[in-house]
Amino acid sequence: xxxxxxxxxxxxxxxxxxxxxxxxxxxxxxxxxxxxxxxxxxxxxxxxxxxxxxxxxxxxxxxxxxxxxxxxxxxxxxxxxxxxxxxxxxxxxxxxxxxxxxxxxxxxxxxxxxxxxxxxxxxxxxxxxxxxxxxxxxxxxxxxxxxxxxxxxxxxxxxxxxxxxxxxxxxxxxxxxxxxxxxxxxxxxxxxxxxxxxxxxxxxxxxxxxxxxxxxxxxxxxxxxxxxxxxxxxxxxxxxxxxxxxxxxxxxxxxxxxxxxxxxxxxxxxxxxxxxxxxxxxxxxxxxxxxxxxxxxxxxxxxxxxxxxxxxxxxxxxxxxxxxxxxxxxxx
Length: 332
Known about the structure:
By secondary structure, the chain is an alpha/beta fold. It has two domains: 4-146 and 289-331, 3-Layer(aba) Sandwich (Isopropylmalate Dehydrogenase); 151-274, Isopropylmalate Dehydrogenase. The chain has helices spanning 15-24, 26-29, 40-49, 65-68, 90-109, 122-127, 135-142, 173-176, 179-197, 222-236, 247-250, 253-256, 267-278, 313-331, and strands at 4-7, 34-37, 56-59, 73-76, 114-117, 151-155, 160-163, 203-207, 240-245, 261-264, 283-287, 293-296. It has a twelve-stranded mixed beta sheet with strand order 3-4-2-1-5-12-11-6-7-10-8-9, with helices on both faces. Strand 6 and strand 7 (160-163) form a beta hairpin. Helix 1 (15-24) packs across helix 14. It is globular, with a radius of gyration of 20 Å.
């Protein structure tokens, strides 16, 4: 199986030091071989800032990564930049974009078994020509997949969630919801959980939009007019969908045993529980793509970059999950 490609993220953020820390923990964490796309000097400095022994070795081809990985962090290519934690600039944004482009191209070509993307600063990327809302949409386009069919799932040891709407004002959410949207996202989720996570018959719990799931229309009718018809359609197709569930009870410990993923109506309904339960092990997984793509579920954290305070757990989890999913595809 080909190695994983890891993009740097913004070099002024915590991404580079957590990539270095992940390589240092490779044996303990059971990580499959990966290589970084660019930033050899940057990664060496980032590892040193955490007092880690992280030798870096440049490679000319992804196929070299497996042999190098036990002794050094493999880095593909010559593109590099300075280690200036907490000081983002346009040069760093260009490096982040170059690294992301290379990782996506290699995965699409089959030279990498999947990609793990480091956290970016979207505003800075926009200044250097990045025209996508985020990395998910960028990777989807690189794969030839419509953005609306690239589904964001947040996954941790205790919970998986999917938000139907993401970076939009809460006031706009009801107008964005539709029976078709719920069905499309649920179908993509069911297929991905079977193929990439080895769940034979995924159970999908679908949250209500309103308090108490609308309470029979007294607190809104979206549950009756939009969500319930979607659940009926999915069940008729053989998908194990349930709901609409009141969101205030859906994430309780006893409730989480009854489903494999919670399909949520908006951003915070999905992200608050995953971050409350699995903050240092949360992974952003893009479903519906022909390639594997994961990312740690946190941002650049410029304020603590270079201080050694950033926890590598989510980056390690993202690399491990990408490797596990890639292995299932390879063996499927």
